[in-house]
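TA notes, week 10

Several of you asked for a full example with nothing omitted. So below is the full record: structure tokens for the whole chain, then the designed sequence directly under it. When grading your own attempts, check the secondary structure regions first.
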């Protein structure tokens, strides 16, 4: 992914390594530099950083207590297979979920000798992320999706998204409580998807179960080959509220309040707020539909992680 446009002025790890190498008269080519990580960008004028995690924990350590680690194949009493048909079991095992020691959180799908898949899914403790009346909300992450393509990538479904707070403890009120898919990527394609789920299912003004979505290739290097910054904005500053999706600062999708039924919009926006999620699913409705047949297959390669550099929430 591209580096954020604004950074703190302190030297990055890459710069410090390079400076030390030059001072010693050594060849920079002899140094192995870890994947680039960035500080959480400071808020732009008029914005406030509401939440942030730059995943600087030691190698092998779990996420901070700001996150809940989901485990198993469903919420207690909720839809099976997390409601999507995905086939993996989520765990908190460091092999599936841990800091990499280079400023990233690593979520790694694995397959055992019997063909069973495991992976990881986390969600914020906080569930109050919301645009204030007359204000705006920005949800952002800098991450690299699993670096695998072709048949080896069939079934991979990494995502960064948000669910309405009333989902917790109910688990059967989707999509009325709202879902903002900031970034979805399937089957190793160079394509990021932004989707809104809301209202009623099937059908409704959000066209469920498909949702209202847009997509585009990642700018510059592919989504798989590098870090990119994925952003969602909920803008309540105008007469009509609007939702917008971006990759590397380039807008590729929007949904206006005027497109949604008044009841559907109210149900999605009148509750406490949203919580954020990061996960890598294997198989399920989205990758299966995209591939045209059941995934993953025998050719799917385990062990390709999603790397998350930071997650940030800003309010204006």
């Amino acid at each position: 992914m591209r580096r954020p446009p604004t950074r703190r002025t302190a030297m990055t790890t890459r710069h410090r390594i390079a400076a030390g190498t030059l001072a010693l008269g050594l060849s920079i080519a002899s140094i192995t530099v870890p994947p680039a990580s960035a500080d959480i960008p400071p808020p732009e004028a008029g914005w406030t950083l509401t939440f942030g995690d730059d995943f600087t924990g030691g190698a092998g350590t779990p996420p901070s207590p700001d996150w809940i680690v989901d485990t198993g194949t469903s919420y207690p009493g909720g839809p099976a297979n997390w409601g999507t048909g995905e086939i993996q079991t989520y765990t908190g095992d460091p092999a599936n979920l841990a800091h990499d020691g280079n400023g990233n959180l690593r979520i790694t799908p694995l397959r055992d000798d019997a063909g069973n898949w495991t992976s990881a899914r986390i969600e914020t403790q906080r569930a109050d992320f919301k645009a204030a009346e007359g204000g705006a909300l920005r949800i952002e992450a800098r991450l690299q999706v699993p670096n695998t393509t072709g048949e080896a990538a069939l079934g991979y479904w990494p995502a960064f998204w948000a669910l309405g707070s009333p989902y917790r403890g109910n688990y059967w009120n989707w999509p009325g409580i709202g879902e903002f898919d900031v970034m979805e990527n399937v089957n190793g394609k160079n394509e990021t998807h932004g989707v809104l789920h809301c209202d009623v299912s099937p059908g409704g003004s959000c066209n469920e179960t498909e949702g209202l979505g847009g997509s585009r290739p990642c700018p510059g290097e592919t989504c798989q080959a590098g870090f990119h910054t994925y952003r969602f904005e909920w803008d309540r500053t105008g007469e009509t509220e609007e939702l917008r999706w971006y990759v590397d600062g380039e807008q590729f999708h929007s949904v206006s309040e005027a497109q949604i039924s008044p009841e559907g919009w109210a149900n999605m926006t009148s509750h406490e707020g949203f919580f954020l999620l990061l996960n890598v699913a294997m198989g399920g409705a989205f990758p299966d539909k995209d591939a045209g047949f059941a995934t993953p297959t025998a050719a799917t390669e385990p062990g390709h992680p999603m790397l998350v550099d930071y997650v940030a929430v800003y309010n204006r």
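Residues 13-23 form the longest helix (11 residues). Use that as a sanity check on your answer.
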